[in-house]
Amino acid sequence: MSASVRCNRRYAVNQIHGVPRTKPTLRVEQKRQTRRRLLDCARELFAANGYAAVKIEDIASAAGCSRATFYLHFTGKTDILRRIGSESMDPRPVSVYADLDAVLDNATREEFTQWIERAIDWFDRNRAILPAWDEALVLEPGFREPAREAIAALPDAMPSYLARWGADREREARLRIQLLVTQLERFFTRWAVQGTIEISRDEAATVLTDIWFPALMPPQA
């Protein structure tokens, strides 16, 4: 069954059982459901077919709406791909790094290893969309700035960690977090998506902890 058909069937059922009865909120709820439907269908299509092969018409059709309705919610393919990351992932990427902020408050190696394992779990749940992001970065120059902003925003979820580095070294602290993000993403892509790295999950978590736990320690630690 195609991604489009699955999307249509699922949301047909949701529409029958989930339409609000209160008139004042009906339109707002319908717009919210349409936006969610577009996000979910775009994610399924990108995961199944890659970025380049999917057209806006495909997303709109899978969501059961028109191209014009698509443009009421998103400016184009790059915009909806970016919004998938910020709106439809569970948990959101910023939540993963807010979790790291709390872990580094305690500064124990064991807890950091457990965080690495949770981060690998997050990548595993979202592995299908990763190739579409890489493809968009190659094909769409306009996607580079939103992607850069998304990575740069993750240190903002770690205010306690940044504060421990002090204002004069905050830029360095942010860079370390961004490099961690990059290595985890590329490792997971090569390990779980491409299969070019052969290593067990436990060994990966241990080695990544060896590299990153000391590298993330603030100067005073």
UniProtKB/TrEMBL annotation:
GO terms for molecular function: DNA-binding transcription factor activity; transcription cis-regulatory region binding. SUPFAM superfamilies: Homeodomain-like (SSF46689), Tetracyclin repressor-like, C-terminal domain (SSF48498). Residues 32-92 form the HTH tetR-type domain. InterPro entries: Homeodomain-like_sf, HTH-type_TetR-like_transc_reg, HTH_TetR, Tet_transcr_reg_TetR-rel_C_sf. Transmembrane segments: none annotated. Residues 55-74 bind DNA. Keywords: DNA-binding, Transcription, Transcription regulation. Pfam families: TetR_N. This is TetR/AcrR family transcriptional regulator. It comes from Rhodococcus spongiicola.
